[in-house]
Structures are given as structure tokens and as C-alpha cells.
Automatic annotation (TrEMBL):
Name the record gives this protein: Protease PrsW
Molecular function terms from GO: peptidase activity
Location in the cell: Cell membrane
Source taxonomy: Bacteria, Thermotogati, Deinococcota, Deinococci, Deinococcales
Family: Belongs to the protease PrsW family.
Provenance organism: Deinococcus cellulosilyticus (strain DSM 18568 / NBRC 106333 / KACC 11606 / 5516J-15)
Length: 224
């Protein structure tokens, strides 16, 4: 009886540990890592609102993707997933663009990152409940960071368009780049077997995206 009770407590504690390591810590880390670049921090209410919109955006994304899994296969499905997810994260971010506090170039990156973290948090919770909490560690390290990095091109474009008030093609181009990166990422990690070569390829892609995003944040933080 005591062994059974202890086993139940151990599993519960382990699940909480996976949740903390795979969901909460990566969320706080990535938010801090990019938020600290902002010379003029955004209002907490707008950050929370954008985060929640990003989290809610996962629900229609999941429904769209489940409804199309029988109609689409292979790369067509991965591209469809990328389009749906990037557009919904974009719409979650668009809710703050007209706010008075959206007054810096870097704000497009800050709010797109915030929406992406909300989306990724909900997605990871869904995967943890569906496939076991132990999957959250890998997803927290790779998938959550990738969601943030996919938004960097169009988040940068949003800030550019808002502050420069011209070049109507900037945001569609940024979205296109984000969708391509997302599609390639999906194709590598889902379509291939999890060999060391595939893992190295995924990590290489994430590293390149991180370096590009880091450059975009640095550039935007220096602009008024």
C-alpha cells in the first residue's frame, strides 16, 4: 500500500518537474532573453493580453490541422500547418499594432515573440497531456524556441512598417520567410526518422534562425 502510494506521488512530482522544465522555464527564459533588448519596456497589460491571444490562437490552429490531416499528407500538410500557425500568431500580434504604446521599431519583435510564447505554451501543454509529460523537455528546448524564431522576420517587418509607414510588401515578405522556415522545420523533424543526423540538422536550423533573430533584435533596438 505504501509502495503504491509512493509510486503515485513520484509520478505526480515527475510530471510537475517535466512541466516546469519543458514549459514554464523555457517560456520565462525566452521572454526575458528577448524582452531585455527593448530600450523602453512595454506595458505589462499589453504583454499579458498578447500572450493570451497567442495562447488562444492555438485552439483554432489545432482544429484546422486535425481537420486537414486526412486530406493532406507529407510536405503539403507541413506547409499547411506552417501557414495556419504563422497567420494565427500574426493576427494575435496585430491586435496591439494600433496601440499608442507600439511606438518603437523593436515593438513588432517583442509582441510577436510574446504571442509565439503563448501559442507554444498551449501547444506544449496539449502534447504533454496527449503523449506524456516527458516529451516536454525536448519540445521546451527546441519547439518553443523555434516558434519564437519563426516570428522574427514578420515581427521585424511589423515594426518597420509601423514606424516607417511605407513599403506595404514588408509584412507579407516577412510572413513568407517565417512560413518557409516553419515548413522546413516541420519537414525535417516530422518526416524524418530521429537519427543523430536529423537531430544535428534541426539544431543547425535552430542555430541559424537564432543568429538571424539576434541580429534583427539588435538592429531594431538601435532604431527609434
Amino acid at each position: 500500500m505504501l509502495i503504491t502510494m509512493w509510486a503515485g506521488v513520484s509520478v505526480s512530482v515527475l510530471q510537475i518537474l517535466w512541466f516546469v522544465l519543458g514549459v514554464l522555464l523555457p517560456t520565462f527564459f525566452w521572454f526575458w532573453f528577448f524582452w531585455r533588448r527593448d530600450p523602453k519596456p512595454e506595458p505589462v497589460r499589453l504583454l499579458i493580453r498578447t500572450f493570451l491571444y497567442g495562447a488562444f490562437a492555438y485552439l483554432p490552429a489545432a482544429l484546422f490541422e486535425l481537420s486537414m490531416q486526412t486530406a493532406l499528407t507529407g510536405m503539403a500538410l507541413y506547409i499547411f500547418i506552417a501557414v495556419v500557425e504563422e497567420l494565427l500568431k500574426y493576427f494575435a500580434t496585430r491586435t496591439v499594432v494600433k496601440e499608442r504604446d507600439f511606438d518603437e521599431f523593436i515593438d513588432g519583435l517583442i509582441y510577436s515573440m510574446t504571442a509565439a510564447l503563448g501559442f507554444a505554451l498551449m501547444e506544449n501543454i496539449f502534447y504533454g497531456v496527449s503523449f506524456g509529460m516527458e516529451v516536454l523537455l525536448v519540445r521546451g528546448l527546441i519547439t518553443m524556441s523555434s516558434h519564437v524564431l519563426f516570428t522574427a522576420p514578420w515581427g521585424f517587418a511589423l515594426g518597420y512598417q509601423r514606424m516607417r509607414n511605407h513599403n506595404k510588401y514588408a509584412v507579407p515578405l516577412g510572413l513568407g520567410i517565417g512560413i518557409v522556415l516553419h515548413s522546413v522545420f516541420n519537414g525535417i523533424q516530422i518526416q524524418s526518422h530521429p537519427t543523430w543526423g536529423v537531430i544535428a540538422l534541426v539544431m543547425a536550423l535552430v542555430t541559424v534562425m537564432f543568429l538571424v533573430a539576434d541580429r534583427l533584435y539588435t538592429t531594431a533596438s538601435k532604431e527609434p
